[in-house]
Amino acid sequence: GEIIFLDSGSTTYFMCEYLKNKNVTVVTNGIYNITRLAENEVQTFVLDGQTRPKSHCILSQDTVERMDSIL
User: Fold this and answer.
1) What residues contact 34, with CB distance under 8 A and at least 6 apart?
2) pTM tops 0.85
3) HSE-up of 25 (CA within 13 Å, CB side)?
4) pLDDT in tens, the chain (71 residues)
């Protein structure tokens, strides 16, 4: 399967529905995406870091480095 990254945001949130029953692994820092992907039983890796309430994401320098190592 493919590995894809979904950033936080409304567009990527709605994309989560279309990943159901697909052979993909998702890497995300989007807080709302995490729940939506779990509801659709999509294999998901959550990036660690500090929550950013205004953008509903998890982000830090470690997040960027971890994303580089996964992708």
Assistant:
1) 28, 44, 46
2) no
3) 7
4) 899 999 999 999 999 999 999 999 999 999 999 999 999 999 999 888 888 888 888 877 776 677 677 66
